[in-house]
Amino acid sequence: MSVQTDDRYGGSFARDVWTTFVRWTIKSVRNPFVLVVSLVQPIIFLVLFTQVFGGVATSALEGVTYETYLVPAIVIQVALVAAATSGIGLVNDIENGMFEKTLVSPMNRVAVFVGKTLAEVVRIIAQVTIVLSLGVVLGAEIATGLTGAVAIAGICVLFSVWFTAFSNVLAVVTRDEESTIIGANLLQLPLLFVSSAFLPLAALPTWIQTVATFNPITYGVDATRAVMLGEDTMTVIDVTRFGGMWDTLVPAIVVLVGLALAFGSVAIYAISRAASADVQ
Amino acid sequence: MTEYAIEARDVAVTYADGTEAVRDVDLLVETGEFFGFLGPNGAGKTTLIKTLVTLLHPTDGTVTVNGFDAVAEPQSVRATVGYMAQETSIDPELTARENLRFACDAYGVSRAKRGNRIDELLELVELTDVADKVADDFSGGMKKRLDAATALVHRPPLVFLDEPTTGLDPAARNRLWEYFQRINDEGTTVFLTTQYLEEADQLCDRLSVIQDGAVVADGTPETLKRRVGGEILAVELAEPAERERAVAVARDESLFAEGATIEPTESGLAVTARDARTRGTDLLVALRDADIGVVGFDVRAPTLDDVFLAVTGERTEAAAADDGDVQAEAVSNGGDAREATMTDDGETGAAADANGVSR
Question: Does A202 touch chain B (CB under 8 A)?
Answer without folding.
Answer: no
